[in-house]
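Checklist before submission:
- one chain only
- standard amino acids only
- sequence pasted in full

Submission:
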Amino acid sequence: MAPAKVNLHLAVGATGPDGYHAVETILQALALHDEVVLSGGAPSFRCEPNLGLSAEDNLAWRAALAMAAEFVRPLDVAVSVEKRIPSGAGLGGASADAAAVIVGLAAHWGIDRSDVRLGVVARSLGADVPFFLEGGAALFTGRGDVLERRMRALDAPVVVVKPAEAVPTARAYEAFDRLRPVSSPGTTGLVQALDEGDTRAVARHLHNAMTASSAGLVPAIGEALELVGSAPGVLGATMAGSGSAVFGICADEQAASACAAHARAQGYWSVVTRSHPAGCEIEPF
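Returned file contents:
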């Protein structure tokens, strides 16, 4: 199981010497997930539906190759990914798939999940990948790959709405750099709300510094955010990552379902899900 994620908080700082922006983000896993299957045999890769990427460009297959290199082992599995998390949404689907491969190969090879080398592989693949080894709710800094602290996971229904157009991450950050800096409210209030299990306070503290820049590239993001944020029973809404999906924390399942149905009627992709307390998990079959 490779869960999606949303950013309950995303603050973006200056670009560092490595060319990446410094970020401070609180990530929350969702029950919405991809299925990643590892099966013994000759190494191979498939993804359904086909995203138009070669295996070498797919992060899940790159994770398999990186694990084999890090642990000096022959790659002895076929990797199959069934996509349910939409791509280009800011929901971390590719990163979750990569983390699922790391977790699955570690189990297959008898490597303890606490082995620090798993984190080394995860960080080499991308900023969000280390989070999916943790899951639940967690604060990350650096490029989004340095774990600062875990916290109590949100426990609430979540509605996710995605416009048809995706947002290329690089273009979103270029647009962000052209705009005035966005001041961050900080994470103190949100962390306290999570640790106290106060869903309404969590919803009040949602923040994403990338919203204006991404909505400037894809105006439908702003329209989707208005739709979700104004829906009855939605306690708070913001954008996921650099977009184009937005999400709302809901008072109950009925409110989430009604919002999703309204979004679909307006032509958006939408799903009702829940926050999830864990990261990538192995499900025997």
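Reviewer check: The chain has a mean pLDDT of 95.
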